[in-house]
Amino acid sequence: MTARRQGGLIYDVAMTDHDRAADRREITNALHSALERRHEVLDAIVEASDRDAAVTAIAELLGTATLGAQAVMGMSFAQLTKDARRANQNELEDLNNQLTFTLSDRPASSGETLGLRPFDGSTDSDIFAARTDEIGSAGDGSGSPAGGLDDEIASAVDRVHAEEAAWFVALEGSDKIGMVFGELIGGEVNVRIWIRPEHRKKGYGTAALRASRTEMASHFPGVPMVIRAPGVST
């Protein structure tokens, strides 16, 4: 399977190309809308108390995700020229032709509502059990058959304490919708994402991947991360 390295992360292209293109379209569309409504955008920025408030105001004004609003805030004067606007419009049309869905079809992919918290062996055995029942393999990413649930969790806790692993539960509000597994193997962090079947194809896998970058970089500073696509669609 083809892979691509970007800034210390190795992405599984088959897993993320569509979502990266959707992100790019969200940004391009936001820039296009901002240029069309530049006076309103400028007023919103001037009235904002700080950058975060300005991003929120732009997102509400343009009906875009935070990702698009942040891109608008980062625009340079060079992007206001006719040539730059024309290039942006051409890119937007090209992306529209490439993609068959919009960000609204996968609302969770923006990552704005999903959070990660460290796995707790006492209170999160339920979601790990659900994952293991479906996948059938050990939680360490070795591909070997899963052992007993208590043994699997105890082993994971030991690896976390030894700074050889980092496990997280993906949350939508208080609902546990999936897990993120990071295992330090051969000088790289192997990152795997599992999303409950009923929450798939909504963008949660992409959101969990985004959130995991910061978490894994914090737990394993300077260590390259390899994103492993799961055997199911997220």
From TrEMBL:
SUPFAM superfamilies: Acyl-CoA N-acyltransferases (Nat). InterPro entries: Acyl_CoA_acyltransferase, GNAT_dom, Topo_IIA_A_a_sf. Residues 160-219 form the N-acetyltransferase domain. It comes from the Bacteria. This is N-acetyltransferase domain-containing protein. It comes from Williamsia phyllosphaerae.
